[in-house]
Amino acid sequence: MAGKDGINMLDVKIRNRCSILELIYQSRQIPRKDIAKALGLTPAAITLITNDLIKEGILVEKAKKESQARGRREVLLEIQAEKFSVIGVNITRHHYEILCTDLSTKELYHKRVSTIEFHSDANLIMDAIAKTIEKDILSSSVLKKKKLLSIGISTLGIVQTELGISLNSYGVFHGKAALKDFFENRFSVPVIVTNNICADAHAEAFLKKTSVQSGSLLFIKYGPGIGSAMIRTSDYFNIYDYKAVQIGHTITEPFGKPCICGNSGCLETVVSYPNVISELYNMISPEATPELYEAWKHVPFNQMTLRDSGEDLMEHVFTSYDKGNVVVGQEIRRILSNMAVAIENAITLLNPQRVILYGGAFQHRRFRDALLSQLSVFTRSQKVGISEFNMKLDALGPVTAAISLFFLNGGRIPD
Questions:
Q1: What was the pLDDT predicted at 66?
Q2: Are 109 and 374 in contact (CB under 8 A)?
Q3: pLDDT (0 to 100) of residue 69
Q4: pLDDT at 171
Q5: Using CA atoms, how far apart are residues 239 and 378, in angstroms rounded to an integer?
Q6: C-alpha neighbours within 13 Å on the C-beta side of residue 246
Q7: How far apart, in whole angstroms, are the C-alpha atoms of residue 297 and residue 15?
C-alpha cells in the first residue's frame, strides 16, 4: 500500500502543479489567494507549490498592485515565458514546417522545407527534421540561453498520441512512424505527437484561453481536404483530450465518387481541392472560364494536383468565383451545399457548444459569407464562426501542444 500511496501522492502533486501553471498562464498574472480560490486548494498548499516553482525558475513574483478592499499591495505570480522555449513541427505530404517560440508563443525561428525528395521515407524525413533543429536552432543563437522544454509534432492521418506513433498518415510516411521515440532519443526532451487537425483545434482553444471554457468545441478545417477535431470538456489545455472527428467521410452525395475510405460520395470526394480542380479543369475555355483558362492552359492535367495539394491552383478558383464567373459559381455552390449539410449533421450528432471554421477558403469573403448564409437556414447556425487565427495555426498547433505537454508534466524541466 505504501508504494501505491506514494505513486498517488506524486500524481496529485503533478496534477496540482499542472493546474496552477495552467491558471497562471491563462491569467498572465494572479495572486496566490486567487489561485487557491479558483482551484479549491489550501493557501498553504499553494504557497508550498508556487515557492517550489519560483525556486525552479518557472515562476516569478513579477508585479504588485494595491488591493481596493484594504489598500494592501498584492504579489502577483507570472510564468517566466522568456526563459524557456519549445519547438513545434508540422509534417505534411509536401513539406515540414518548424516553429520555435518561447512559452508566450513569441516566434524565435520559423522555417519550411520541402520533403518531395524524401519519397515518404519516414527515416529520411525524421532525420532531415532533426538535422534542421540541430543546425538552425540548437547550434545557433536562436535560443539565446532559453531552456528547451519539449517538442510537439503534428502530422496527417491516424496518430496514436499516447505512444507517439503515426499509424496511417495517408501518404506522408510509408506505414508506421515512431516519431516520439526518435525525437526523444535524439534530443532528450519530452515529445508529443498528434493529428494535425487536433493540433490546430488545440491551438485555437489554447490561444483563445477563457472564451472557450464554457463547453465543447468542434473545429473544422477546409483545405486541401476537410478534417475536424473536437474537445468535449473545458480542459482545453490538455492536448490528449482532443479527438479527430471524421466529418470528411460522412456521405453527402449518395452513389457519388468512390472515396479512399471505401464508401462513395463522401464529403471529402466532393470538396477536396484536387477534386474541385479536376472537375473545373474539364470545363475551362477562353469563353466560359477566362481567368482559369489563362492560369491553367499551360499546366498538364497530371500536374494539376501535385503542386502543394493544389492550394495555389485553388486560389485561381476563388479569384474567378469572386469575379462572378458562372461556371465556377456552379461548382462552388455544389461545394457549399455539401459542406453546409455535413456541418449541420455534425452539430446535430455531436452537439458542440461552438463550431470553428478554419482554412484558406475562409480568407475569401464571398466564399465565407456564402457558407454562413447556407448554414443560416438551420436552427443551430449561431454556433458557427470563423477562426480568429485563420491561416496561423498549422505551425502554432504543435507549439501549443508542446507547451501543454510541459504543463501536463507538472512543469518538469528536462535535465
A1: 62
A2: no
A3: 57
A4: 81
A5: 31
A6: 10
A7: 60
From CA 172, how far away is CA 195, in angstroms rounded? 12
Residue 211 cell numbers, joined: 472564451
Is the Cβ–Cβ distance between 152 and 409 less than 8 Å? no
How many other C-beta atoms can be found within 10 angstroms of the C-beta atom of residue 187?
18
For residue 178, give the H/E element and its range. none
Q: Cell for 242?
A: 482532443
Spans of the chain below 70 pLDDT: 1-7, 63, 65-72, 210-214, 301-309, 379
pLDDT in tens, 79-120: 999 999 999 999 998 899 999 999 999 999 999 999 989 988
In the prediction, which pLDDT does 2 show?
A: 40
User: What grid cell was written down for 280?
Assistant: 473545373
**pLDDT number for residue 383:** 86
**Biggest CA-to-CA distance, the chain:** 82
The partner residues of 159 in beta bridges, in order of sequence, read: 166
**pLDDT of 154:** 98
Q: In what order do the strands lie in the sheet containing 107-114?
A: 107-114, 95-102, 84-91, 147-155, 191-195
DSSP label at 301?
Answer: G
> pLDDT by residue (tens digit) across 17-36?
999 999 999 999 999 999 99
- Interior angle at CA 287, CA 285 and CA 291, nearest 5: 70
Q: How far apart are CA 201 and CA 227, in angstroms?
A: 11
Q: What nine digits make up the cell of 377? A: 437556414
Burial of 290 from C-beta contacts in 10 A (0-12 / 13-18 / 19+): middle
| CA distances for 127 relative to 167, 176, 179, 262, 348, angstroms | 19, 16, 11, 34, 44
pLDDT in the model for residue 304: 62
Strand segments (E) across 304-415: 354-358, 384-386
CA atoms within 13 A on the CB side of 268: 17
Distance CA 105, CA 406 (A): 14
Angle between helices 311-322 and 273-281 (to 10 degrees): 60
Report yes or no: 51 and 77 within 8 Å, Cβ to Cβ. no
